[in-house]
Inverse folding.
């Protein structure tokens, strides 16, 4: 079979991957969902043509979206993930022994079903007693949520269902849903290909939070391969706590170095 999937990442950049098999395809009430078997990156989840995760590089994104903020919080017990229906962020959150409740707020139940079926290793945390899955709109859910220690926004790109997750009012609702030491992180796209989105997220988060920081990680299947996360904190950041974690990307050194930005990224957010 000589079949290729390509994601049109921008109007003039695409990433092509050789496909061994189409494992699943459906139109959900919210988006088009596909699970493809790739030669280079294993199984891959695609939503509306955009690569969400692959079995070979998912660990980078999920470790970095979860561990970086959780280790900067003094005692995270109650955590929520907006989006992230594959369950990868939840899996990493549950490595932290103090976690009492991990809430997943995913609008599209079919994403969770597909992940449980095709990515059991990514989805395994969804079965845990501490996990609570809510199939509802994250924007409305956050408005009524209170006393969360950490909230992660593990969204798709700001088109379609995720658009409202990239506006200042949403970051303000997250602020209100967090307890006094609260920290949020939102995935904020690629500094090479989507600099304006990073600026938009940084501006929005800093309207609500006194502390705003950007950090980076390398995710080969996302546009440009260099990915950003925007962190907002209610209080000045302390040194990261030291806890044993089983990881393949994150290290205690990367916890610190990921905040050291290349010149062009520093200039972008200045
Ligand atoms: N969330 C971020 C996906 C953004 C990728 N964008 C793209 N391929 N154009 C991923 C969900 C993983 N839990």
């Amino acid at each position: 079979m000589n079949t290729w999937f390509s994601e049109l990442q921008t109007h003039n950049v695409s990433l092509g991957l050789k496909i061994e098999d189409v494992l699943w395809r459906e139109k959900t009430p919210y988006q088009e969902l596909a699970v493809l078997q790739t030669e280079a990156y294993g199984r891959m989840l695609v939503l509306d043509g955009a690569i969400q995760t692959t079995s070979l590089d998912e660990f980078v994104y999920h470790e970095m979206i979860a561990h970086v903020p959780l280790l900067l919080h003094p005692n995270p017990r109650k955590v929520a993930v907006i989006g992230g229906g594959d369950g990868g962020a939840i899996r990493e959150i549950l490595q932290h022994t103090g976690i009492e409740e991990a809430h997943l707020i995913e609008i599209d139940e079919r994403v969770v079903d597909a992940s449980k079926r095709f990515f059991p290793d990514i989805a395994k945390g969804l079965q845990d007693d501490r996990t609570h899955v809510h199939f509802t709109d994250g924007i409305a859910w956050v408005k009524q949520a209170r006393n969360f220690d950490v909230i992660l926004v593990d969204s798709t790109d700001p088109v379609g269902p995720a658009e409202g997750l990239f506006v200042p009012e949403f970051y303000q609702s997250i602020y209100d849903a967090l307890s006094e030491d609260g920290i949020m992180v939102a995935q904020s796209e690629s500094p090479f290909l989507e600099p304006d989105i990073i600026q938009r997220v940084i501006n929005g988060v800093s309207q609500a939070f006194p502390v705003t920081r950007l950090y980076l990680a390398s995710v080969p299947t996302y546009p440009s391969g260099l990915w950003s996360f925007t962190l907002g904190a209610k209080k000045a950041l302390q040194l990261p706590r030291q806890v044993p974690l089983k990881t393949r990307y994150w290290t205690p050194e990367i916890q610190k170095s990921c905040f050291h930005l290349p010149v062009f990224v520093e200039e972008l957010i200045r």
Remarks:
- The domain at 3-54 is CATH 2.30.140.10 (Spermidine Synthase; Chain: A, domain 2).
- The chain has two domains: 3-54, 58-269.
